[in-house]
Amino acid sequence: MAGRRSADQHPAQTPPFRLAQRGDGFEAYEATAPVAARCPACGAMVSVEMPRFAEPPVRLDLTVVHETIPPDRARHMVDLQSFSATGRVLLTSRMFVRTGTEPM
Q: pTM (2 decimals)?
């Protein structure tokens, strides 16, 4: 039975959000890591630091926006929407993001 238990155990995973601050009547949650995504237009990897939330979101929708800047350059933004467990929108935002070259 002991061997069976060890096979069923999964390594602990870092939760996506942690309590960052608690005050009189409020809590603020922050992401434990930046979020990465690939630009569908040029394939560049982008990374965004997540904002703080009043409650941890259960769903995040990220859309990478590609903008061409003359001469032959690009900048990227991310449209972010976060949702509560009931489907309520917690935050909608457009943020400039860092571009990297590492594969996702």
A: 0.68
For 37-56, letters b (16+ CB in 10 Å) and e give bebeeeebbbbbebeebeeb
- Sequence-ordered list of residues with C-beta below 8 angstroms from that of 41, at least 6 positions apart, any chain: 66, 74
| Residue 24, token pair as written in the block | 């009189």
* Residue 86 to residue 31: CA distance in whole angstroms: 20
Report residue 19: phi and psi, to 5°. Answer: -70, 120
21-75 pLDDT tens trace: 999 988 898 888 888 889 999 999 998 888 888 888 899 898 999 999 888 888 9
